[in-house]
Specification:
- The complex is a heterodimer of chains A (about 260) and B (about 350).
- With about 260 residues, chain A is of the alpha/beta class.
- Chain A is about 35% helix and about 25% strand.
- Chain A contains 9 helices and 12 strands.
- Chain B is built from 16 helices and 2 strands.
- Chain B has about 350 residues and is mostly helical.
- Classes of the chains: A alpha/beta (about 260), B mainly alpha (about 350).
């Protein structure tokens, strides 16, 4: 289980996060929503161990994040950053193989390569494996990195230990079809027993795929629960200062927000 | 793809590296045979074998020229070339940019400045006793210190808000090169006639003073570095994704950076202490390799040792034979090819590299 306990972060004089609590069980997908500057990315940096919180703690499997061995945690938890800029022309397959780096002691090259091929197939980039990254489109590059993090926490059937996937706005540069494929993939990883934490901007997509939503505003959690509990016109009024109408998705039945056109 | 083809396909870089190594050996053998005295390959082999106790030595004068002059020089050329190229590769990995070169960003001139200072002031500052006891180590240690200081300064200047800015990196390089140049210039006024000749050698780079004694001091340092740098490959690959991503893959970025800084300073310091400042090799060799086998540091690191060594061997051959009976400083030969190459690289990849 991924558990965030009373996370507060102060940067300079600014309180970026205030006492945020939540947990993500294996098999569950938690989406974090909120306006720009709500503290979503800071929360991601706390969970990935990039910055220590001013107060509060993060636990993986009940063990505090800083008590983990670096490599050991990397075998179990992967982070997909929003934006990865590269200046050296690596091939796509080499990028995906980098995801296997924390396993170098316990996994052979052939095994790593087989896993890389499998996850590239899933991320729909297998046909690009020999291309260098600078020749790929933004969306293709993002799918390659997606495959990299999948390879990092790939779980052999015999291994029962939990895996954690942290995704920071992973669909921002994808077209609508690939957005849904990416989230379907994340959903499948959750269904296979992974705990998935994802930052999203699209409310309706979040409600379609995630089990729970966490709504942040000004560093505070203003709503946390199932999509039906969180995606209400009241939350959206509080969070975005917009008047939204909530309808059910005609096919999936999940709540969807419709925002009336703004008139100047 | 069948299993056998797949096996071979994945080892393409290995075959290329073996081939390059073979070419480098040929270049070394050829370079050692050329000069005022011509030595045949058979004489070279026989001399080496005689020194390890097999067979009989050839005509003693040829053997002596080969063993005492040519061989240490050729070996030194390969080592220095390999070290400069692999330092370039590691620094490029550290700065996440293919334009970093120990000469270009001022690390070599930092080492040279410290070495020159020791040459000029050493006799008046250090006691005779100390010099007699530690004389062999003073230059390499000073060069290492200079290289380390320069690397540290450059990293401070080039990093803005945790990210390395290429413009800042190159500007810091210009500043440090100019500063070291000025320092060496000042010292040349204080130097004696003999010291002055040595200073010229530092400024332009030369393998002319190579001998077994030097090789015994600097060689082990350089060989050790060649043995250690391949261990950085995984970390440098991950670092190319960015510092945060490398951390998320379980690497200690701080330790990785320290290792790169200290190793390249050690290598460049050792190289500069025996051959002066030779620029651009750390830029050219890794770039050519990336064109051939891609960016994976697992191959580029050993590859740049081999290619850098081979290229400097060829440059030394040119330096010795172009203006016979005189000799060109090898730094000039390398820069005449390397500097235009750098310009070409900048023009071709302006957008990608300088953003």
């Amino acid at each position: 289980m991924l558990k965030a306990e009373n996370i507060s972060v102060r940067i300079g004089a600014k309180q970026v996060l205030r006492a945020v609590d939540f947990c993500v069980q294996p098999g569950e997908m938690l989406a974090v929503l909120g306006p720009n500057g709500a503290g979503k990315s800071t929360l991601m940096r706390v969970l990935s161990g990039d910055i220590p919180p001013t107060e509060g703690k993060t636990f993986y499997d009940g063990r505090e994040i800083y008590a983990w061995d670096r490599k050991e945690l990397a075998c179990r938890r992967a982070v997909l950053s929003q934006f990865t800029e590269m200046h050296m022309p690596f091939r796509a397959v080499e990028i995906v193989m980098m995801g296997r780096a924390p396993h170098s002691r316990n996994s052979s090259f052939a095994n790593d390569h087989r896993i890389a091929m499998e996850v590239m197939e899933q991320a729909d980039v297998a046909h690009l494996s020999e291309r260098t990254m600078d020749t790929l489109s933004g969306g293709e590059q993002q799918r390659v990195h997606w495959a990299r993090v999948s390879a990092q926490i790939w779980r052999p059937p015999s291994d029962k230990a939990s895996r954690y996937l942290l995704l920071d706005e992973p669909i921002s540069s994808l077209d609508i079809a690939h957005q849904h494929s990416a989230l379907a993939l994340a959903r499948k990883m959750a269904d296979d027993g992974m705990a998935v934490f994802i930052i999203l901007h699209d409310l309706n997509i979040a409600a379609q795929y995630a089990d729970h939503l966490l709504f942040l505003k000004n560093g505070r959690s203003i709503a946390y629960g199932t999509p039906r509990e969180v995606l209400t016109s009241e939350t959206l009024r509080k969070g975005f200062e917009i008047d939204a109408i909530i309808k059910n998705h005609p096919v999936d039945g999940t709540p969807s927000a419709f925002i009336p056109r703004k008139r100047p | 793809m069948s299993k056998a083809t797949w096996f071979l396909w994945n080892r393409r870089p290995l075959f290329l590296l073996v081939f390059l190594f073979f070419l480098a050996l040929v270049a070394m053998g050829f370079s050692a045979s050329r000069g005022a005295v011509h030595i045949s390959l058979r004489e070279e082999v026989a001399t080496v074998l005689a020194h390890v106790g097999i067979g009989h030595p050839v005509d003693s004068q040829t053997a002596s020229v080969f063993w005492n002059i040519r061989l240490p020089r050729v070996l030194m050329g390969f080592l220095v070339g390999g070290i400069l190229a692999v330092s370039g590769t590691c620094l490029q990995g550290l700065f996440r940019n293919p334009l970093a070169d120990p000469g270009l960003i001022g690390i070599s001139s930092g080492a040279a400045l410290a070495a020159v200072a020791v040459i000029v002031f050493g006799s008046s500052v250090l006691s005779l006793n100390f010099r007699q006891e530690w004389g062999f180590a003073i230059l390499p240690v000073a060069a290492f210190g200079g290289a380390l200081g320069a690397t540290f300064l450059i990293y401070q200047f080039a990093t803005i808000g945790g990210e390395v800015r290429v413009a800042a990196l190159l500007l810091a390089g210009i500043a440090i090169n100019a500063l070291a140049g000025a320092g060496i210039g000042w010292m040349s006024y204080l130097a004696t006639e003999d010291q002055l000749r040595m200073l010229t050698f530092w400024g332009m780079g030369s393998l002319g003073s190579s001998n077994w004694m030097q090789l015994k001091i600097a060689g082990p340092i350089m060989l050790a570095m060649m043995a250690v740098t391949p261990l950085l490959a995984g970390g440098l690959n991950a670092l190319s994704l960015g510092e945060a991503d490398a951390r998320h893959l379980g690497f200690s970025v701080t330790r990785l950076k320290q290792a790169v800084v200290i190793l390249s300073a050690l290598g460049v310091g050792a190289a500069v202490s025996v051959s002066g400042v030779i620029g651009f090799l750390g830029l050219v060799a890794p770039h050519l390799l990336r064109l051939m086998i891609g960016s994976n540091h697992r191959w580029v690191i050993p590859g740049s040792i081999i290619l850098g060594g081979g290229l400097l061997t060829l440059a030394d051959l040119l330096a010795r034979t172009l203006v016979v009976p005189a000799e060109l400083p090898i730094g000039i030969v390398v820069s005449s090819v390397g500097a235009p190459f750098f310009l070409y690289l900048m023009v071709k990849e302006k957008k990608r590299l300088l953003s």
